[in-house]
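Suppose a colleague, Dr. K., hands you the sequence of a protein chain of 382 amino acids and asks what its three-dimensional shape might be. Before reaching for any lab equipment, you can write down a predicted structure in token form. Begin with the sequence itself:
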Amino acid sequence: MKTLFFLTASLAASLLTAQADTYKLKDGRSFEGKIVMETADSYTLLIEVQKGVRDEITVKKSEVDSILKEDKSYEAFKNIPKLLPTSDLLTEKDYKNIIAKNLTPFLENHPTSEHLAEVKAIELALLDELSKTQAGVLKINGKWLTAADHTANKYEIEAILALNPVLVHARKRDFASALIELASQEKTYKNTKPYHQALELSLRFLPVYKLTAENIVANSDELIRKRDLSLDRLSSGEKIRITRILAVEEARYQSQLSKAKKSGSKWLPLNRFHPESAEAVLKSITSESTRLKKIAADEYVDGGALYREFLQSIDKNDLEAAKQQLSEFSRASPPKEYSDALRDQLTAAVEQMKLIEAQKKAEAEEEELKAKQDAEIEDKEK
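The predicted structure, expressed as tokens, is then:
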């Protein structure tokens, strides 16, 4: 009897784990359950009275008003609405991966789902964003930038693109890579808002990075002791297998460590069995925290704003303001190509203004000459 009860309980748990249908009766009652037996005139339903308590009830078919089949696509659907709105700066590859991973399987596996229309609408929205990305349009701060927007704000937009990897790596808790990316863009974009936003993010995660390294230093000896003790207790065959796994992990780490040292990086990869690397990272965190905090506290020339203001002044033919803005922009230490491009625009605008002034002068002289000639003719007629 005990065995029979176990099998029945297992079957009940299995049935209730599956999708349950809703049976609405003509007297207003309703039950969610699965059919465990059906006769010509009745259903025997397995229902859950309360969590963990199951029961069987028999319902006459003549008493059933409707049966609502539960949509088996719900589990596959529930995370799809979260795909919108999309993140900034997704690439063509990102969009294709999102569609292939989330939408294509759903559409193939659930063609009759009650959520089908919503999924197709989300697919169309993602395809539309994909086409914009393929056309070179960027999504920044939730807004799609036109070619004109990009031109008017090129320096700051390119700073955002260059510093986006800092955010990406930080989200993955790959703090070493995030700091390497921040350092690589410091010279080019130090005097921009995107750099200082990435800097503030780095200062927020540095304490977390520090705690990770401190835990390795504090616990590695004990961890190594426990590892070795556990290996000694294993059977010969199992010990060989685990030792091989650890050897692969160690070889991978040594390869990463070698690359970091050759590149001169101060951010060595961390490993739970290597406190010496963690100690080196802690020293780097201390020195870099001090340096980055100083940069964050210092006033800086906003090169992105000056770039925009210069172009606005050129459009208004306010060349004196443009000259002043170009001088200030140069103090932001942008790459030479940016300063040269703005200087060329200013030179062209100055030449254009000279041509306009020369043309106006010629027109004025011509008007003056015509007026003089008209006056002479009038004198002769008198």
